[in-house]
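Thought: the user wants the 3D structure for the chain below. I'll pass the sequence to the structure tool as-is, report back what it returns, then summarize two notable features.
Action: structure_tool
Action Input:
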Amino acid sequence: MLLCVCFAALFMSCVRKHAFEKYGKELQEEEMVKVMADIFLMEAYVDEKWSKVSKDSVAAMKKSLYPPILKHHQIDSTVFFTTFNYYQSHPEEFIVLLKKVEAELYAVKPTDTTTVVVSEEAIAPPEGLEDLPGFKQQEAAMREQFIKAKQKKGVINRKNQSGNKQE
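Observation:
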């Protein structure tokens, strides 16, 4: 009896392991790397932001964010999960894929969406600002530099140092 149970368990594990071989990879490796990188970023973000929430809620949140990622890449969930299951049943290829995902994640550079335009009206910081002992002294030096620059342009006078134009 015990031998039959062991044989059945062995048979089931073999069937499950090779169940996805007939489907193969439906996504190209490059596309799978991009999708997996986005999924890893999403999961890391959710883990970070929802660290004090129950694991069930975190899992539900992650599950709800898969469809938008797949939609962004214009990939059907069946195609993605078929390819994912293929890689799971082929560990050697999965390791190569994960290394490429890691390289993709390290290649991601944060983008600065702000644009700094230095205009002619820009006021340079005073000389030796970093040498001043504290923040209050640095702030006072910057304020004085600002007032001097605005006085040169005639925007403010000595009596009205608030920065408002005289009418």
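Final Answer: Structure generated. Helices lie at 2-17, 29-49, 55-72, 77-89, 91-107, 135-153. The first helix runs from residue 2 to 17.
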